[in-house]
Amino acid sequence: MTGLISSASSVNNKDYDLAVFESRLFTTAVIAGLNASDDPIRTISCSFVSLTAQHIGNQSLDRIECNVREYPPNEQLMLNVAQRIFKTINLLVSEDFQQFHFSEFGFCNESYTTSSIYGNYTWPEVALTSSRTSSSVSHSCNFHCGSVTRICRVTGWDIPDYSQCGVSAGTFLIYDIHESELVRDSYTINQGYAFGLICGLFCSSSPTGEEFKWFDSNGNEGLYSQQYIEDTFEFESMDVAYLISYIDFDREGDFILPDTYISGSYTCRSSSGNYSQTVSVNTRNPNGPFSQFFFRFTTFFTNISLTDVEDKDYTLEVFEANIFYEADVVDGFNSTTNPIRTIYCHFVPLMEEDVTGDRVECDVREYPPNSSFVAVVWHNISTFISDTDNNAFQSIVMSVTGFCNQSQTESLDFGVHTWSESFGNTILTLPCGNRPMMNVTRMCQTTGVGWENPDYSQCETSEKITY
């Protein structure tokens, strides 16, 4: 059953609430009418189990399993007790319970399995109907090669049976991991988005002994882009090989960063030479009108670094990629079609009040324009930054008109002026050095164009100051 467990007590503890819930079920429904000192004896034990996929996003709900027993055996136990339990639960909980199921022989919890060859699967919660029989669940194997089967027994799930995944001969394929589509002669990816291609023999019931590798257009097994990033490829010495363009969040693999140029021809080839296919990888660069906003923050990159590479430009690029993916900037977006979102971050001068640290500006865009883009994406980014570490990021500001850096101007006639960091389309005013009652003004232009020249017209006099 799925619902919201709460007790009448003031103890803020779910396990305690569940124990109270279990006790009330026991006295009201399970042992109603029984003598407390004679047989039969009934027991109940409740525990939390995993939420099913239907409610996985609602963490306020609880999925619960209760085990009710009677000693000695009684074939009428479920018939006698189930209806009273159902009525009692509807009185005890603050929300209607959902997915309410009874079984005399137990359940198998919803679970997930992964296989690098055959794919990832979600196995639904199953209620057993007999102690002598099992329940079988099947899914199509990865790449639609036969069926994978898993059996639910009274002892729980068996391991998945992949024996029917494929035929003995095997089929040579290139597959897009993210979009779950076959790739023919060409593949197009939005610039800056991660992609993953897998090639090899699929629908094979046993290993073939073939080893597959990817090669670039020059016949090299690796693609070197800069001194900190090694080859683009990750290999497996089995029936498949991967060509991956990922983000090096934790230096756990040698993957290229999103700004690296990845267009070109790549060939997947087997060790025997019997299997080979070339794919042309193309990148779609955004163009035309777009929605845009900027944000700035100050931090110490040594405190938030996601890589062990001691280079600030590299650290910033990894952070930029982390924002791009982990802050849901491209969450749910197709990596090969419009709309396209981009992010570009760079260091800017510190503000006077920051004293030390690193000041960063990021430019975030969506092509074509989208009226809800700024509100939605800035909310995601600001939440991500806040959740990362409230103290790590300071002086966080957002602007749809851009910023101008803190700067200083000097005039022999009108004095030295320090212009603070400002939002685009803003006019700043400071006293003239020669005429303090008058002002020099300066316009911060929009969308990162920068400062206009200072306007000293109010400072001008018929006689200039002599220093």
How would you characterize this protein structure?
The protein has 467 residues and is an alpha+beta fold. It has helices at residues 14-30, 77-92, 301-304, 312-326, 373-388, and strands at residues 2-3, 41-49, 62-71, 107-108, 111-115, 119-123, 126-127, 135-140, 147-153, 156-157, 171-176, 181-182, 186-190, 195-202, 212-215, 233-234, 240-245, 264-270, 276-284, 291-299, 340-348, 358-367, 394-399, 403-404, 407-411, 415-419, 422-423, 426-431, 439-444. The strands form ten sheets. The chain has a five-stranded antiparallel beta sheet, with no helix packed on it. Strands 13-19-18-15 form a four-stranded mixed beta sheet, with no helix packed on it. The longest helix has 17 residues, at 14-30. The model is unreliable at 222-238 and 248-258 (pLDDT under 50).
Q: What's the short version?
A:
With 467 residues, this protein is of the alpha+beta class. It has five helices and 29 strands. Strands 12-11-14-17-16 form a five-stranded antiparallel sheet, with no helix packed on it.
Provide keyphrases for this structure.
467 residues, alpha+beta, Immunoglobulin-like, 4 domains, flat
Topology readout:
Elements: E1 2-3, H1 14-30, E2 41-49, E3 62-71, H2 77-92, E4 107-108, E5 111-115, E6 119-123, E7 126-127, E8 135-140, E9 147-153, E10 156-157, E11 171-176, E12 181-182, E13 186-190, E14 195-202, E15 212-215, E16 233-234, E17 240-245, E18 264-270, E19 276-284, E20 291-299, H3 301-304, H4 312-326, E21 340-348, E22 358-367, H5 373-388, E23 394-399, E24 403-404, E25 407-411, E26 415-419, E27 422-423, E28 426-431, E29 439-444
Parallel strand pairs: 13-19
Antiparallel strand pairs: 1-3, 2-3, 4-7, 5-6, 8-9, 9-10, 11-12, 11-14, 14-17, 15-18, 16-17, 18-19, 20-22, 20-23, 21-22, 24-27, 25-26, 28-29
Helix pairs in contact: 1-2
InterPro entries: Ig-like_dom
Protein name: Ig-like domain-containing protein
Organism: Amphimedon queenslandica
